[in-house]
Amino acid sequence: MTLEIFPLLGIGLVKPGDEVTDILEPALQPLQPEAGDVLVVTHKIISKAEGRVVTVEGDEEAFKRALVETEAVAIVRRRGNLVIAETKHGFICANAGVDRSNAVGGTMILLPEDPDRSAHRIRIRLQRSFGVDLPVIISDTFGRPWRRGLTDIAIGVSGLEAVLDLKGSTDWMGRELEVTEIAVADELASAADLVMGKSSGIPAALVRGYDGPRGEGRGRDLVRSPDEDLFR
Amino acid sequence: MTLEIFPLLGIGLVKPGDEVTDILEPALQPLQPEAGDVLVVTHKIISKAEGRVVTVEGDEEAFKRALVETEAVAIVRRRGNLVIAETKHGFICANAGVDRSNAVGGTMILLPEDPDRSAHRIRIRLQRSFGVDLPVIISDTFGRPWRRGLTDIAIGVSGLEAVLDLKGSTDWMGRELEVTEIAVADELASAADLVMGKSSGIPAALVRGYDGPRGEGRGRDLVRSPDEDLFR
Fold first, then answer.
1. β-pairing, A72-79 with A82-87?
2. Rounded to the nearest 5 degrees, what angle is found at the Cα of A64, between the Cα atoms of A62 and A65?
């Protein structure tokens, strides 16, 4: 299969109370969504539309520190101004997801309350509009231990398997695979980021030609349960 | 920009001593490589061609355990049969990169000695063949703390910036970005994995339309230096 990844162009400023599908639809229209497409949306516009935006009061740095503590259920590491925290969703990321980039001046953006529900809602509404079942991934930009640079990963998923389980599959030599779980939703989010960039104002992309299994995967499937995790 | 990702089809079994570019060229030919394309090759075929394959002696599990210790410069975590180790390249991954998947029976595959050098060598040879400077990424499949499933990442790079530095760039609102380093080579490796799969025998893909900066990035740029790393 060949994969094509299209940036969704012409999406303007999103404000609290906006209906995000009303904003995505005109950008999707020229691409004529078809069966097999996957829609990737950065969480920023979801958070804004859902009103997950707070107005800074007082000193910005102090306000941010307090906000991070509120959003975090656990602090994983701390060094100077850098806080790596676990969110209530189970994600472990910088500043518990609190971010100022692409926020209107004097505001900060939080993660969506329930990114899987947000993804599901977008999928259902777009299905009504386009008559096609488009799996939806909501992405964010996370760091990783040991490796420099950030990559986009999936925090919300609807309509496809987030983790591809190859258990029982064999490699090309007929030998059972040792690697059995592929985080395909994260790979799709990373792939989409390549056409979105960080400063270009493109908050969504359409992936065409991905032939992995549809299903009822969720972003939370990508969170490793603490008892399986050697790193906390 | 629109990104296209093509699997490289028809690549057969690779043996120690093979010239990997001789194997890649006929698979690239139908795609007519052009300026702007990026070639992603899984390390397995590089390791095989470079003879980084060892024959199992005695008990397979015991042999593997000993081999992992040899390949590792440090053990990061250990639980049962699972060893997370640092390789001499600075990568932190399961089994120090020792893998049996897609190995000929009775053998195990190691990481290339110097994946950046391997990438550079492929790039130079393909430039001679096609008259086009194709950046090359050598990929492997790594796990991550906290998240389920594995993703493909870049272990060797030639001809493009591995980490995109956005320092000083502004977001769409004119605000300086907080996130400044994007691991684009890892995102390209993940994107390429979506067309390769793990059991399909497709060991390479061509990415067309990536407009990120060319340059002299290396896979080692993606290794976070221990003094910047909160997680070791």
1. antiparallel
2. 65
pTM (two decimals): 0.96
Instruction: Tell me the average pLDDT across A6-33.
Output: 95
For residues B107 and B66, give the distance between their C-alpha atoms in angstroms, rounded to a whole number.
Answer: 14
How much of chain B exceeds pLDDT 70, in percent?
A: 94
CA distances from B60 to A179, B55, B64, B150 (A): 18, 10, 6, 24
DSSP codes of every residue in B25-85: HHHHGGG---TT-EEEEEHHHHHHHTT-EEE--S-HHHHHHHHHHHHEEEEEEEETTEEEE
Question: Distance between CA B128 and CA B136 in Å, rounded?
Answer: 14
Is the per-residue pLDDT at A102 higher than 80? no
Q: Quick one: average pLDDT of A46-56?
A: 96
Nearest-by-CA chain B residue for A213: B194
Inter-residue contact B193 to A164 (CB < 8 Å): no
Query: Between residues 2 and 21 of chain B, which touch chain A (CB distance below 8 Å)?
Result: 2-7
B200/A172 CB distance under 8 A = yes
Q: Using 70 as the pLDDT threshold, list the residues of chain B that sit under it.
A: 170-179, 198-199
CB–CB of A102 and B193 under 8 A?
Answer: no
pLDDT tens-digit map of A28-38: 999 999 998 99
Please name which of A149, A103, A15 lies closest in space to residue B184, comparing C-alpha atoms. A149
What is the predicted pLDDT for the residue at A172? 59
- Give the separation between CA B103 and CA A134, rounded to whole angstroms: 37
- Contact between chains at B194 and A184 (C-beta distance less than 8 A): yes
**Domains along chain B with CATH numbers:** 4-43+113-223 (3.30.1330.100), 53-111 (3.90.1660.10)
- Indicate the average pLDDT of chain A: 92
